[in-house]
Protein backbone atom coordinates (compact mmCIF):
# COMPACT_ATOMS: atom_id res chain seq x y z
CA UNK A 1 0.00 0.00 0.00
CA UNK A 2 1.08 3.58 -0.65
CA UNK A 3 0.68 5.76 2.45
CA UNK A 4 -1.57 8.77 2.07
CA UNK A 5 -4.06 7.44 -0.48
CA UNK A 6 -7.56 8.78 0.12
CA UNK A 7 -9.10 5.95 -1.92
CA UNK A 8 -7.29 2.68 -1.17
CA UNK A 9 -9.43 1.01 -3.83
CA UNK A 10 -7.19 2.58 -6.49
CA UNK A 11 -4.22 0.54 -5.29
CA UNK A 12 -4.59 -2.57 -7.42
CA UNK A 13 -2.04 -5.35 -7.82
CA UNK A 14 -3.97 -7.89 -9.91
CA UNK A 15 -4.35 -7.92 -13.66
CA UNK A 16 -7.68 -6.68 -15.04
CA UNK A 17 -9.04 -9.11 -17.65
CA UNK A 18 -12.58 -9.18 -19.03
CA UNK A 19 -13.85 -6.97 -16.24
CA UNK A 20 -12.37 -9.12 -13.45
CA UNK A 21 -9.37 -8.60 -11.16
CA UNK A 22 -7.23 -11.65 -11.79
CA UNK A 23 -4.09 -13.17 -10.34
CA UNK A 24 -1.23 -13.66 -12.78
CA UNK A 25 0.87 -16.69 -13.54
CA UNK A 26 1.49 -18.86 -10.47
CA UNK A 27 4.50 -17.83 -8.34
CA UNK A 28 5.24 -14.92 -10.69
CA UNK A 29 5.07 -11.32 -9.59
CA UNK A 30 6.40 -7.96 -10.73
CA UNK A 31 8.30 -6.21 -7.97
CA UNK A 32 7.51 -2.49 -8.16
CA UNK A 33 10.03 -0.24 -6.43
CA UNK A 34 10.12 3.41 -5.44
CA UNK A 35 13.03 4.93 -7.41
CA UNK A 36 13.45 7.63 -4.75
CA UNK A 37 14.08 5.20 -1.89
CA UNK A 38 14.79 1.89 -3.59
CA UNK A 39 12.19 0.29 -1.36
CA UNK A 40 9.48 -2.04 -2.58
CA UNK A 41 5.94 -0.73 -3.11
CA UNK A 42 4.02 -3.73 -4.35
CA UNK A 43 4.11 -7.16 -5.90
CA UNK A 44 1.94 -7.00 -9.02
CA UNK A 45 0.49 -9.91 -10.96
CA UNK A 46 2.45 -10.94 -14.04
CA UNK A 47 0.15 -12.52 -16.61
CA UNK A 48 0.98 -15.58 -18.65
CA UNK A 49 0.81 -15.62 -22.43
CA UNK A 50 -2.39 -17.65 -22.14
CA UNK A 51 -3.95 -14.99 -19.92
CA UNK A 52 -2.93 -12.22 -22.32
CA UNK A 53 -4.48 -14.22 -25.16
CA UNK A 54 -7.64 -14.59 -23.06
CA UNK A 55 -7.77 -10.81 -22.70
CA UNK A 56 -7.55 -10.45 -26.49
CA UNK A 57 -10.33 -13.00 -26.97
CA UNK A 58 -12.54 -11.20 -24.45
CA UNK A 59 -11.91 -7.95 -26.31
CA UNK A 60 -12.94 -9.57 -29.57
CA UNK A 61 -16.12 -10.89 -27.93
CA UNK A 62 -16.94 -7.45 -26.52
CA UNK A 63 -16.30 -5.58 -29.75
CA UNK A 64 -19.65 -6.04 -31.50
CA UNK A 65 -21.67 -4.66 -28.59
CA UNK A 66 -19.27 -1.77 -27.93
CA UNK A 67 -19.12 -0.66 -31.55
CA UNK A 68 -22.92 -0.87 -31.75
CA UNK A 69 -23.25 1.75 -29.00
CA UNK A 70 -24.08 5.20 -30.26
CA UNK A 71 -21.26 7.70 -30.35
CA UNK A 72 -23.06 9.64 -27.62
CA UNK A 73 -23.27 6.58 -25.38
CA UNK A 74 -19.54 5.91 -25.73
CA UNK A 75 -18.81 9.60 -25.17
CA UNK A 76 -20.87 9.62 -21.99
CA UNK A 77 -18.87 6.70 -20.58
CA UNK A 78 -15.62 8.46 -21.42
CA UNK A 79 -16.82 11.68 -19.80
CA UNK A 80 -17.65 9.74 -16.64
CA UNK A 81 -14.13 8.28 -16.74
CA UNK A 82 -12.72 11.79 -17.18
CA UNK A 83 -14.69 13.07 -14.19
CA UNK A 84 -13.53 10.20 -11.98
CA UNK A 85 -9.90 10.72 -13.00
CA UNK A 86 -10.03 14.38 -12.03
CA UNK A 87 -11.74 13.57 -8.74
CA UNK A 88 -8.94 11.10 -7.98
CA UNK A 89 -6.12 13.26 -9.35
CA UNK A 90 -4.26 13.57 -6.02
CA UNK A 91 -4.30 9.83 -5.44
CA UNK A 92 -3.32 9.11 -9.03
CA UNK A 93 -0.45 11.59 -8.77
CA UNK A 94 0.77 10.01 -5.55
CA UNK A 95 0.72 6.56 -7.13
CA UNK A 96 2.57 7.91 -10.15
CA UNK A 97 5.29 9.65 -8.12
CA UNK A 98 5.71 6.62 -5.88
CA UNK A 99 6.42 4.22 -8.74
CA UNK A 100 8.01 6.58 -11.29
CA UNK A 101 9.75 9.23 -9.21
CA UNK A 102 8.82 12.53 -10.87
CA UNK A 103 8.01 15.46 -8.54
CA UNK A 104 4.45 15.51 -7.29
CA UNK A 105 3.72 18.80 -9.08
CA UNK A 106 4.74 17.19 -12.38
CA UNK A 107 2.69 14.11 -11.56
CA UNK A 108 -0.40 16.23 -10.94
CA UNK A 109 0.22 17.99 -14.25
CA UNK A 110 0.45 14.61 -15.97
CA UNK A 111 -2.86 13.48 -14.49
CA UNK A 112 -4.52 16.64 -15.81
CA UNK A 113 -2.79 16.18 -19.17
CA UNK A 114 -3.86 12.55 -19.38
CA UNK A 115 -7.43 13.44 -18.43
CA UNK A 116 -7.51 16.04 -21.21
CA UNK A 117 -7.18 13.25 -23.77
CA UNK A 118 -10.16 11.42 -22.32
CA UNK A 119 -12.30 14.54 -22.56
CA UNK A 120 -11.02 15.45 -26.03
CA UNK A 121 -11.78 12.06 -27.53
CA UNK A 122 -15.12 11.82 -25.75
CA UNK A 123 -16.01 14.94 -27.71
CA UNK A 124 -14.44 13.61 -30.92
CA UNK A 125 -16.52 10.42 -30.70
CA UNK A 126 -19.49 12.45 -31.93
CA UNK A 127 -17.52 13.93 -34.82
CA UNK A 128 -16.47 10.79 -36.68
CA UNK A 129 -17.83 11.89 -40.01
CA UNK A 130 -18.03 10.22 -43.38
CA UNK A 131 -18.76 11.83 -46.72
CA UNK A 132 -21.13 11.78 -49.69
CA UNK A 133 -19.19 11.94 -52.96
CA UNK A 134 -20.33 13.31 -56.33
CA UNK A 135 -21.39 10.27 -58.32
CA UNK A 136 -19.74 9.25 -61.57
CA UNK A 137 -23.20 8.24 -62.84
CA UNK A 138 -26.68 9.55 -62.15
CA UNK A 139 -27.95 6.21 -60.85
CA UNK A 140 -25.43 5.71 -58.03
CA UNK A 141 -24.84 7.08 -54.56
CA UNK A 142 -21.21 7.14 -53.44
CA UNK A 143 -20.40 7.38 -49.74
CA UNK A 144 -17.44 7.03 -47.43
CA UNK A 145 -17.89 5.67 -43.94
CA UNK A 146 -15.59 5.47 -40.93
CA UNK A 147 -15.73 2.28 -38.88
CA UNK A 148 -13.82 1.08 -35.80
CA UNK A 149 -10.81 -0.99 -36.77
CA UNK A 150 -11.26 -3.71 -34.15
CA UNK A 151 -9.26 -5.03 -31.21
CA UNK A 152 -6.40 -2.74 -30.21
CA UNK A 153 -3.26 -3.88 -28.39
CA UNK A 154 -1.36 -1.09 -26.64
CA UNK A 155 2.11 -1.06 -25.06
CA UNK A 156 3.05 1.96 -22.97
CA UNK A 157 6.28 3.20 -21.31
CA UNK A 158 7.28 4.00 -17.74
CA UNK A 159 8.12 7.70 -18.13
CA UNK A 160 4.50 8.88 -18.49
CA UNK A 161 2.55 5.96 -17.02
CA UNK A 162 -0.77 7.81 -16.99
CA UNK A 163 -0.87 10.10 -20.03
CA UNK A 164 0.61 7.61 -22.49
CA UNK A 165 -2.27 5.29 -21.61
CA UNK A 166 -5.12 7.77 -21.95
CA UNK A 167 -3.65 9.10 -25.21
CA UNK A 168 -4.09 5.63 -26.72
CA UNK A 169 -7.05 4.14 -24.89
CA UNK A 170 -9.38 7.16 -25.08
CA UNK A 171 -9.44 7.45 -28.90
CA UNK A 172 -9.74 3.69 -29.28
CA UNK A 173 -12.75 3.50 -26.96
CA UNK A 174 -14.27 6.59 -28.55
CA UNK A 175 -13.97 5.02 -31.98
CA UNK A 176 -15.66 1.81 -30.81
CA UNK A 177 -12.57 -0.37 -30.34
CA UNK A 178 -11.78 -2.53 -27.30
CA UNK A 179 -8.24 -2.28 -25.90
CA UNK A 180 -5.83 -4.67 -24.21
CA UNK A 181 -3.01 -2.73 -22.55
CA UNK A 182 0.40 -3.92 -21.40
CA UNK A 183 1.93 -1.21 -19.19
CA UNK A 184 5.64 -0.94 -18.44
CA UNK A 185 6.68 -3.41 -15.75
CA UNK A 186 8.33 -0.59 -13.78
CA UNK A 187 5.06 1.37 -13.47
CA UNK A 188 1.98 -0.89 -13.64
CA UNK A 189 0.14 0.67 -10.68
CA UNK A 190 -0.93 3.79 -12.57
CA UNK A 191 -2.41 1.64 -15.34
CA UNK A 192 -4.32 -0.53 -12.92
CA UNK A 193 -5.71 2.52 -11.11
CA UNK A 194 -6.94 3.89 -14.45
CA UNK A 195 -8.57 0.54 -15.18
CA UNK A 196 -10.40 0.66 -11.84
CA UNK A 197 -11.72 4.13 -12.63
CA UNK A 198 -12.76 3.01 -16.11
CA UNK A 199 -14.65 0.11 -14.53
CA UNK A 200 -16.42 2.51 -12.20
CA UNK A 201 -17.27 4.74 -15.17
CA UNK A 202 -19.11 1.89 -16.86
CA UNK A 203 -16.63 0.66 -19.46
CA UNK A 204 -18.02 -2.82 -20.17
CA UNK A 205 -16.18 -6.03 -19.38
CA UNK A 206 -13.69 -6.94 -22.08
CA UNK A 207 -13.60 -3.45 -23.57
CA UNK A 208 -10.54 -2.39 -21.54
CA UNK A 209 -8.16 -4.94 -20.03
CA UNK A 210 -4.74 -4.39 -18.42
CA UNK A 211 -2.18 -7.21 -18.53
CA UNK A 212 1.04 -6.45 -16.62
CA UNK A 213 3.87 -8.84 -17.35
CA UNK A 214 7.52 -9.35 -16.52
CA UNK A 215 7.96 -10.94 -19.95
CA UNK A 216 7.50 -7.87 -22.13
CA UNK A 217 9.08 -9.45 -25.20
CA UNK A 218 6.74 -12.44 -25.25
CA UNK A 219 3.60 -10.37 -24.69
CA UNK A 220 4.77 -7.94 -27.37
CA UNK A 221 5.23 -10.81 -29.80
CA UNK A 222 1.73 -12.09 -29.00
CA UNK A 223 0.25 -8.66 -29.66
CA UNK A 224 2.18 -8.21 -32.90
CA UNK A 225 1.46 -11.64 -34.36
CA UNK A 226 -2.10 -12.26 -33.13
CA UNK A 227 -4.75 -12.34 -35.79
CA UNK A 228 -7.25 -11.05 -33.22
CA UNK A 229 -5.39 -7.72 -32.98
CA UNK A 230 -6.15 -5.32 -35.80
CA UNK A 231 -4.23 -2.34 -34.44
CA UNK A 232 -0.99 -2.25 -32.47
CA UNK A 233 0.06 0.98 -30.79
CA UNK A 234 3.44 1.25 -29.07
CA UNK A 235 5.42 3.95 -27.31
CA UNK A 236 9.01 3.08 -26.52
CA UNK A 237 12.43 2.63 -28.02
CA UNK A 238 13.14 2.62 -31.74
CA UNK A 239 14.83 -0.78 -31.40
CA UNK A 240 11.74 -2.44 -29.95
CA UNK A 241 9.52 -0.59 -32.42
CA UNK A 242 11.46 -2.05 -35.35
CA UNK A 243 11.04 -5.55 -33.93
CA UNK A 244 7.30 -5.14 -33.39
CA UNK A 245 6.82 -3.78 -36.91
CA UNK A 246 8.65 -6.76 -38.36
CA UNK A 247 6.56 -9.17 -36.30
CA UNK A 248 3.32 -7.41 -37.21
CA UNK A 249 4.01 -7.69 -40.93
CA UNK A 250 2.71 -11.25 -40.98
CA UNK A 251 -0.83 -10.16 -40.15
CA UNK A 252 -0.76 -6.80 -42.02
CA UNK A 253 -2.16 -4.97 -39.00
CA UNK A 254 -2.22 -1.20 -38.66
CA UNK A 255 0.59 0.03 -36.42
CA UNK A 256 1.34 3.34 -34.78
CA UNK A 257 4.77 3.84 -33.24
CA UNK A 258 5.92 6.69 -31.03
CA UNK A 259 9.61 5.91 -30.79
CA UNK A 260 12.89 7.45 -29.70
CA UNK A 261 13.80 11.09 -29.99
CA UNK A 262 17.00 13.10 -30.15
CA UNK A 263 15.51 16.58 -30.15
CA UNK A 264 17.63 19.46 -31.43
CA UNK A 265 17.40 22.96 -29.97
CA UNK A 266 18.58 25.88 -32.12
CA UNK A 267 19.35 29.08 -30.22
CA UNK A 268 20.24 31.93 -32.57
CA UNK A 269 22.19 35.11 -31.86
CA UNK A 270 19.00 37.19 -31.96
CA UNK A 271 17.17 35.01 -29.45
CA UNK A 272 15.87 36.50 -26.24
CA UNK A 273 18.19 34.75 -23.78
CA UNK A 274 15.79 34.63 -20.79
CA UNK A 275 13.08 33.15 -23.01
CA UNK A 276 15.51 30.61 -24.45
CA UNK A 277 16.77 29.62 -21.01
CA UNK A 278 13.23 29.06 -19.72
CA UNK A 279 12.39 27.12 -22.86
CA UNK A 280 15.40 24.84 -22.46
CA UNK A 281 14.64 24.30 -18.77
CA UNK A 282 11.13 23.17 -19.72
CA UNK A 283 12.25 21.03 -22.64
CA UNK A 284 15.30 19.47 -20.97
CA UNK A 285 14.75 18.98 -17.25
CA UNK A 286 11.11 17.94 -17.00
CA UNK A 287 10.90 14.44 -15.51
CA UNK A 288 14.69 14.58 -14.90
CA UNK A 289 15.23 14.59 -18.66
CA UNK A 290 13.34 11.32 -19.12
CA UNK A 291 10.97 12.31 -21.93
CA UNK A 292 11.02 11.45 -25.60
CA UNK A 293 10.71 15.13 -26.57
CA UNK A 294 13.53 16.27 -24.29
CA UNK A 295 16.01 18.81 -25.60
CA UNK A 296 18.93 16.49 -26.31
CA UNK A 297 21.21 18.46 -28.63
CA UNK A 298 21.39 22.17 -27.78
CA UNK A 299 23.02 24.14 -30.59
CA UNK A 300 23.85 27.75 -29.71
CA UNK A 301 25.08 30.32 -32.22
CA UNK A 302 28.59 31.58 -31.53
CA UNK A 303 27.62 35.19 -30.83
CA UNK A 304 25.64 34.36 -27.68
CA UNK A 305 27.15 31.00 -26.75
CA UNK A 306 29.04 32.24 -23.70
CA UNK A 307 26.19 34.41 -22.41
CA UNK A 308 23.62 31.68 -22.93
CA UNK A 309 25.78 29.02 -21.25
CA UNK A 310 26.24 31.26 -18.23
CA UNK A 311 22.53 32.10 -17.96
CA UNK A 312 21.45 28.47 -18.33
CA UNK A 313 24.03 27.36 -15.76
CA UNK A 314 22.77 29.92 -13.25
CA UNK A 315 19.19 28.76 -13.76
CA UNK A 316 20.10 25.09 -13.43
CA UNK A 317 21.85 25.74 -10.11
CA UNK A 318 18.45 26.64 -8.71
CA UNK A 319 16.87 23.24 -9.50
CA UNK A 320 16.49 21.20 -6.32
CA UNK A 321 16.99 17.43 -6.45
CA UNK A 322 15.19 15.05 -4.12
CA UNK A 323 12.22 12.83 -3.35
CA UNK A 324 9.35 14.04 -5.53
CA UNK A 325 6.91 13.88 -2.63
CA UNK A 326 8.75 16.66 -0.83
CA UNK A 327 7.88 20.32 -1.37
CA UNK A 328 10.01 22.39 -3.71
CA UNK A 329 11.61 19.50 -5.57
CA UNK A 330 12.27 20.09 -9.27
CA UNK A 331 14.29 16.98 -10.17
CA UNK A 332 13.38 13.50 -8.99
CA UNK A 333 15.40 10.30 -9.34
CA UNK A 334 16.22 8.51 -12.55
CA UNK A 335 14.11 5.43 -13.02
CA UNK A 336 16.80 2.87 -12.15
CA UNK A 337 20.51 2.23 -11.72
CA UNK A 338 21.04 1.41 -15.38
CA UNK A 339 19.70 4.85 -16.35
CA UNK A 340 22.09 6.58 -13.94
CA UNK A 341 25.07 4.57 -15.19
CA UNK A 342 24.22 5.48 -18.79
CA UNK A 343 24.29 9.18 -17.95
CA UNK A 344 27.64 8.76 -16.20
CA UNK A 345 29.07 6.91 -19.20
CA UNK A 346 27.96 9.57 -21.68
CA UNK A 347 29.40 12.35 -19.53
CA UNK A 348 32.71 10.55 -19.10
CA UNK A 349 32.97 10.09 -22.87
CA UNK A 350 32.32 13.79 -23.48
CA UNK A 351 34.77 15.00 -20.84
CA UNK A 352 37.37 12.61 -22.20
CA UNK A 353 37.05 14.32 -25.57
CA UNK A 354 37.40 17.85 -24.21
CA UNK A 355 33.92 18.85 -23.01
CA UNK A 356 33.68 20.89 -19.81
CA UNK A 357 31.18 20.39 -16.99
CA UNK A 358 29.73 23.83 -16.24
CA UNK A 359 27.22 22.69 -13.59
CA UNK A 360 26.55 19.33 -11.96
CA UNK A 361 28.03 16.28 -13.57
CA UNK A 362 27.58 13.66 -10.89
CA UNK A 363 25.08 11.93 -8.69
CA UNK A 364 23.28 14.15 -6.23
CA UNK A 365 23.90 14.03 -2.51
CA UNK A 366 20.74 12.05 -1.93
CA UNK A 367 22.52 9.04 -3.45
CA UNK A 368 20.78 6.23 -5.29
CA UNK A 369 19.72 7.25 -8.79
CA UNK A 370 19.41 10.95 -8.04
CA UNK A 371 21.55 12.89 -10.53
CA UNK A 372 22.52 16.53 -10.48
CA UNK A 373 21.02 18.69 -13.26
CA UNK A 374 23.98 19.24 -15.52
CA UNK A 375 25.18 21.69 -18.17
CA UNK A 376 28.08 20.60 -20.39
CA UNK A 377 29.96 23.21 -22.46
CA UNK A 378 32.29 22.84 -25.43
CA UNK A 379 30.51 19.74 -26.67
CA UNK A 380 31.04 18.64 -30.28
CA UNK A 381 28.56 16.99 -32.60
CA UNK A 382 30.67 13.82 -32.74
CA UNK A 383 30.34 13.01 -29.04
CA UNK A 384 28.05 10.24 -27.83
CA UNK A 385 26.30 12.82 -25.64
CA UNK A 386 24.88 14.29 -28.85
CA UNK A 387 24.60 11.14 -30.93
CA UNK A 388 22.59 9.16 -28.37
CA UNK A 389 19.36 9.91 -26.53
CA UNK A 390 20.48 10.84 -23.01
CA UNK A 391 17.28 10.32 -20.98
CA UNK A 392 18.77 12.19 -18.05
CA UNK A 393 19.09 15.78 -16.71
CA UNK A 394 22.06 16.73 -18.89
CA UNK A 395 22.14 19.71 -21.28
CA UNK A 396 25.00 19.55 -23.81
CA UNK A 397 25.83 22.86 -25.54
CA UNK A 398 27.28 22.82 -29.08
CA UNK A 399 28.42 25.91 -30.98
CA UNK A 400 27.30 26.71 -34.52
CA UNK A 401 28.03 29.64 -36.83
CA UNK A 402 25.42 29.90 -39.62
CA UNK A 403 21.82 29.06 -40.35
CA UNK A 404 22.98 26.50 -42.89
CA UNK A 405 25.15 24.79 -40.29
CA UNK A 406 22.29 24.80 -37.80
CA UNK A 407 19.98 23.07 -40.26
CA UNK A 408 22.61 20.46 -41.10
CA UNK A 409 23.27 19.74 -37.41
CA UNK A 410 19.59 19.51 -36.55
CA UNK A 411 18.93 17.04 -39.36
CA UNK A 412 22.02 14.90 -38.67
CA UNK A 413 20.01 12.22 -36.90
CA UNK A 414 17.93 9.21 -37.81
CA UNK A 415 15.30 10.53 -35.42
CA UNK A 416 12.85 13.35 -35.93
CA UNK A 417 10.34 13.56 -33.12
CA UNK A 418 10.54 17.10 -31.70
CA UNK A 419 12.68 20.18 -32.18
CA UNK A 420 12.93 23.64 -30.66
CA UNK A 421 13.90 27.02 -32.11
CA UNK A 422 14.68 30.32 -30.39
CA UNK A 423 14.94 33.42 -32.58
CA UNK A 424 13.30 36.82 -33.03
CA UNK A 425 13.82 36.83 -36.80
CA UNK A 426 10.70 35.97 -38.86
CA UNK A 427 12.92 35.00 -41.78
CA UNK A 428 15.01 32.62 -39.66
CA UNK A 429 11.93 31.13 -38.05
CA UNK A 430 10.30 30.46 -41.41
CA UNK A 431 13.46 29.01 -42.91
CA UNK A 432 14.08 26.65 -39.99
CA UNK A 433 10.43 25.65 -39.80
CA UNK A 434 10.53 24.54 -43.43
CA UNK A 435 13.94 22.83 -43.25
CA UNK A 436 14.12 20.95 -39.95
CA UNK A 437 13.02 17.31 -40.17
CA UNK A 438 10.82 16.82 -37.11
CA UNK A 439 7.19 16.00 -36.47
CA UNK A 440 6.77 18.76 -33.89
CA UNK A 441 8.50 22.11 -33.53
CA UNK A 442 8.42 24.56 -30.63
CA UNK A 443 9.25 28.17 -31.53
CA UNK A 444 10.35 30.28 -28.58
CA UNK A 445 8.84 27.74 -26.20
CA UNK A 446 9.88 24.45 -24.67
CA UNK A 447 6.35 23.25 -23.89
CA UNK A 448 4.59 21.85 -26.94
CA UNK A 449 2.41 18.92 -25.83
CA UNK A 450 -1.37 19.36 -25.83
CA UNK A 451 -4.35 17.14 -26.58
CA UNK A 452 -5.54 19.48 -29.34
CA UNK A 453 -2.39 19.05 -31.47
CA UNK A 454 -1.02 15.97 -33.25
CA UNK A 455 1.86 14.26 -31.43
CA UNK A 456 4.34 12.16 -33.40
CA UNK A 457 7.56 12.09 -35.36
CA UNK A 458 9.21 11.46 -38.69
CA UNK A 459 12.10 9.27 -39.84
CA UNK A 460 12.86 6.62 -37.20
CA UNK A 461 10.90 8.39 -34.50
CA UNK A 462 7.73 6.64 -35.50
CA UNK A 463 4.53 6.26 -37.49
CA UNK A 464 1.15 7.88 -36.98
CA UNK A 465 -0.08 10.68 -34.74
CA UNK A 466 -1.71 10.81 -31.33
CA UNK A 467 -3.99 13.57 -30.11
CA UNK A 468 -6.03 16.09 -32.10
CA UNK A 469 -8.39 14.98 -34.85
CA UNK A 470 -5.65 12.83 -36.38
CA UNK A 471 -5.46 10.80 -33.19
CA UNK A 472 -8.80 9.16 -33.99
CA UNK A 473 -7.84 8.11 -37.50
CA UNK A 474 -5.49 5.34 -36.39
CA UNK A 475 -8.44 3.55 -34.81
CA UNK A 476 -10.74 3.78 -37.81
CA UNK A 477 -11.06 2.05 -41.15
CA UNK A 478 -12.40 3.80 -44.24
CA UNK A 479 -15.18 2.03 -46.15
CA UNK A 480 -16.26 3.24 -49.58
CA UNK A 481 -19.82 2.31 -50.63
CA UNK A 482 -21.19 2.47 -54.17
CA UNK A 483 -24.99 2.04 -54.19
CA UNK A 484 -26.82 1.74 -57.50
CA UNK A 485 -30.52 2.65 -57.65
Question: Any overview of this molecule?
Answer:
InterPro entries: Ald_DH/histidinol_DH (IPR016161), Ald_DH_C (IPR016163), Ald_DH_CS_CYS (IPR016160), Ald_DH_CS_GLU (IPR029510), Ald_DH_N (IPR016162), Aldehyde_DH_dom (IPR015590), Aldehyde_DH_Superfamily (IPR050740). It comes from Pseudooceanicola pacificus. This is Aldehyde dehydrogenase family protein. With 485 residues, the protein is α/β, with parallel strands linked by helices. It has two domains: 276 residues, 3-Layer(aba) Sandwich (Aldehyde Dehydrogenase, Chain A, domain 1), CATH 3.40.605.10; 189 residues, Aldehyde Dehydrogenase, Chain A, domain 2 (3-Layer(aba) Sandwich). Helices cover 38% and strands 22% of the residues. It has 15 helices and 22 strands. The longest helix is centred in the N-terminal third of the chain and has 21 residues.
Give the topology, please:
Elements: E1 15-17, E2 20-22, E3 29-33, E4 40-45, H1 49-68, H2 71-87, H3 89-100, H4 104-124, E5 131-133, E6 140-148, E7 151-155, H5 163-175, E8 179-182, H6 188-201, E9 208-210, H7 216-225, E10 229-235, H8 238-248, E11 254-258, E12 263-267, H9 273-285, E13 295-301, H10 305-317, H11 337-352, E14 356-359, E15 374-379, H12 384-387, E16 394-400, H13 403-410, E17 415-416, E18 418-422, H14 426-435, E19 440-443, E20 458-459, E21 462-463, H15 470-473, E22 476-484
